[in-house]
Amino acid sequence: MRVSLITASLLAGVLAGCAGQPVETAGMPPAEPVATPPAEPAAPSGLHIESEYYTLPNGLKVVMSRDPTVPTATVGVYYGIGFRIEPRNRTGFAHLFEHLMFQGSAHAPKGQFDKIIYSAGGINNGSTRFDFTNYYEVVPSNALESVLWLEADRMRMPVIDQTVLANQQGVVANEVKVNVINQPYGGWPWLDMPQVANENWYNAHNFYGDLADLQAAKVEDSKEFFNSFYRPNNAVLVVAGDIDYAATRAMIDRLFATVPAGSPVQLPNIAEPRQTQEKFKIKPDPLAPRPAFSVAWHVPERNTPEWFAMGVLDQILVQGQDSRLYDKLVRETGIAGGVQGGINIGLGNMYNYNGPMLWTVGFIHDPSKTREQIQAALDSVIEDVRTRPVSADELARARTKIRSNLYNLADPSTRFGLIDLLAVGALWENDPNWVNRLEAGFDAVTPELLLATAREYLRPTNRSILLVQPGAPGAPAAKSGASR
Amino acid sequence: MIRRALAAAFAAALATLALLAPAAPTAAQDAFPAQPAIGTPKPFAVPASESYRLPNGMQVTLIPYGKVPKATVSLRIYAGALNEGENSWLSTFTGQMLREGAAGRSAADIAEAAAGMGGNLGIGSDEHETTLGLSVLAANAGDAVRLVGEVAQRPDFPASELDRIRQNLLRALAVAKSQPQPAADAALAAAYYGTAHPYGRPYATEAQITGYSLDDVRGFYQQNFGARRARLYVAGQFDRDAIKTIIEQVYGGWAAGPERLRLPPQPQPGPKVLLVNRPGASQSTVRLAFPAPAAGDASDIPFRVTNALLGGSFTSRITTNIREDKGYTYSPGSGIGHNPGQAMWTFDADVTTDVTGAALKEVFGEIRRLQNEAPPQDEAAGIQSWLAGTFILQNASPGGLIGSLATRDFHGLPANWLESYVPSVLAVRAPDIQQLTRETLPLDKMTLVVVGDLAKVERQLKALPELRNVRFRRVTPF
Fold first, then answer.
1. Contact: A403, B32; criterion CB under 8 Å
2. Where does the pLDDT of residue A45 fall: very low under 50, low under 70, confident under 90, or very high at 90 and above?
3. In terms of CATH architecture, what is B272-474?
4. Between chains, do B330 and A10 touch, taking CB under 8 Å as contact?
5. Which fold would CATH assign to domain B50-251?
6. A404 and B70 in contact by Cβ < 8 A?
7. Which chain A residues have a beta carbon less than 8 Å from that of B17?
8. Is 0.90 topped by the overall pTM?
9. C-alpha A473: how far from chain center
10. Sequence-distant (≥ 6) Cβ neighbours of residue A446 within 8 angstroms
11. Which one of A45, A143, A329, B33 is most buried, by most CB atoms within 10 A?
């Protein structure tokens, strides 16, 4: 729920394609008006999200996207700081800080933020991801200006003292317990796999945070973190829905133009070296009743042709019951009852990150299935896509699935998925129209490119295998051949 | 969180919102503007829908909606745990077998067909229904209606897949049994409904799953699937005449089958305290339950407002207290589960082990405070506005609209129930909330479940005055 590392919402859907963790589900994104083709159920003609875009003198990027289908307005503030980047002795701090941003600001004492939004008929939440932290609200459109006022106030001056810090340290510790510590498969594979597959500390630490690190956080840490990363020149404001462009711009200028800019943001080097040797790890899990298998590969750099090809491979290999891994691991061999997989699994989707990333596949299985059997089944699927071209039909089906998912963005419910794509386009491409070019990127993928991408990126030497072994640490391996 | 889809025309008199206007400007000595006024919300009308019945009794509801070229199809059949008799999870087993082949097509063919439309066929079973559905590109709406019809009416139940599905269910059961939340839910269900009723047995045993045969699956299907128990919902973009023709072709020949089964439970009154030991657990998983007004009762909507104010929203009293003030928990919340003719209110939370007693003390205290004193008018108005506003969010997507209408139909609520929802919410008065809290949540009739490290938790519970005279029962929920 609310204010989570991943996402979550009080109603149904939010963004992330959560998979691993037993918490909430992913949702249905939202929407735009102009998003779509004519009513005619004709051949799909492509997604177009209309928007207006400008930057305030203090560096705040602003995206507005109008869709009056439903009389609500959605607001998102995205800061360009995620959980990869936090002080080394303060794991989990980026997420803890996200919680602290809800604890009151100069003109809205603790509790007011939620009270005002809820009492107006809206909902709000926040989440911390690899490369951004977002705060988002949807309200009846008459309350838009109040939401902007609240966001501007906390961008200027959140009030963070020892009382609220101690309170949220308790809340976050409980969040970690309910999602990880007191759960079988807690943190698998979404929190665990990056720690296995990555070399660079920024990509390979515990993003939820060590409980001791969380407890050690100080009020001063918050001030420094805020001043370093939570400035308008490191942020995007998105407003979508039932809005008037000129009136909304006037509100934004009035409320945000005076927020002082900070120094240019310095981000550390988060690059990962090219992996050249398979990695392997066993995670003992005293709560888990069955073993689990997971494997991850580093994916191509974002926005490259190979990255789009990887998105298509993801569809072909693991998304949906028509996928090859589902067919092999579920229907053909009965190794698993289902397969979860994806790029940025459990913590987002293939669009909303900006740096090294993994494509991960995971499933729970019976101990009667040995690692060798599982590996053989998996390899047969992966090697096939590395050596034989994908048929035109299968490629078309993958594109249809992608298109159908993108159209969900135009659904005018909460619009949280829509503002997510607009925000990351502005944040990293300086262009919210990036979303409108995604389909073309997938359409340009050829069977040859799929083959080349699979050959390089689905190499055995580019993968990391993580097994969950039931039982206490140091217990004898179960029958599942967790040897090596 | 009310699990139900709600409804209503948001239009209605939100005069209450005036209360939310500019908070008194705080000690702002700077140039930052005062909080802007929040005006009156614009009207939101529930999109129109059309419902009719085929001659064989199947209900059809069409909801043309939205500018997005997609369509959502959902077929709901009154065949769930309620219909299983003693055979827990047989409806789930049957539902899972449906996708393994139909009308001579293999499971892989079915999955590829769905994917080619831009969708993924989802099949689920709960206490009351088996649901088949998918969301596809609009051009494929008719094909989606056909695919769902084929799988629901002409399943092949291939023997070759039976044992694999069985192993999947055994694995899923093992995982559920290792998690604290299912343990709490199972213990609560057994104590509250009694194990003689299917509601009281939400989990099967290994022996049951191991024992089911193909004949059991076929038998469950034949005895429970049919047109009279089915409702088909189509929402989004589609050609209305064309879809009606297809529906008639695909479903018109479906045998009527049996009537919907009515099997009301006999909830067992509290007070009861059920403890489940989970040695070493860092948190206690808590369930607190009481009977609640049924959907459509006179006090149904007032109690939904009560719930939202007490524990069902982020700004509720319990959440504000034990999360935002005390930091005892991350995701506390209360909600109302509506079954036909009856309902149950539950408060759920996972609280740090050492403060289990302290957290419950606060929860009891908040219930008592609301029993003793009507909430301030502005607090009640804020919660009412919240329910009215979130009604729009729940009904602004095809899937959400289907959920709302299907819920209305499930409970046999009036056709205009969605349209009347918001006005009903806004008509609730603060004294109603106090009164309903008294009537519905008498602490001496509670059913309480705690799953946790009992060596640390039990004495904390013993110290609570509300539990002093209640016998603690240790149970094994599975």
1. no
2. low
3. 2-Layer Sandwich (3.30)
4. no
5. Cytochrome Bc1 Complex; Chain A, domain 1 (3.30.830)
6. yes
7. 119-120, 142
8. yes
9. 31
10. none
11. A143
